[in-house]
Amino acid sequence: MNLTDMIQMERKFDRDVIQDKKIRWSPEERLFNAYVSLDVELSELANTVEWFKVWKDNRGQKTEAGKTHEETVLSEYVDAMSFFFNIANQNKWTYLLLISDDEMADFAKKPMTISLNKVFLSLKLMISKSLFSHKLEDFKHAWHLFIKFGLVDLKLSWDDIEEEFVKKNIENVERQENNY
């Protein structure tokens, strides 16, 4: 599995949901929906990791039923990733998401981030600028920051990310088939 395959899986899933649910919206509204969804998923990821909850003694323990904290973080990360794919598919920006194995290895070697708050806010700013200012470079930079955030700051492996993405895609297809 590679990024191109993952992007294609997301494209097919999105297309099937729109057709099956008979969703009728303008291209602009569909894109806005994807951006809102990405924003929400990034917030859910932050809420799961809990780095900002300095008032809590037991930060980083949040889990989904039947999952470890690490599995929950991975699941939330992949949820956000799917909306990066969705936005790229809609804007025909998928080429911005392609990362070579060497680039991926370089991301994994970067130092951990000192301020996850800054990473989170930077992601949101760049993503918003890509929508409202139509800045492709902001979207690409946000994507690269997101990948580095996952590999380095969250200590996720690319193999685990790919595996979880495929698993979630299959689950999402099954949910749709069962009138989710």
From TrEMBL:
<dbReference type="InterPro" id="IPR016947">
    <property type="entry name" value="UCP030140"/>
</dbReference>
<dbReference type="Pfam" id="PF08761">
    <property type="entry name" value="dUTPase_2"/>
</dbReference>
<dbReference type="InterPro" id="IPR014871">
    <property type="entry name" value="dUTPase/dCTP_pyrophosphatase"/>
</dbReference>
<protein>
    <recommendedName>
        <fullName>dUTPase</fullName>
    </recommendedName>
</protein>
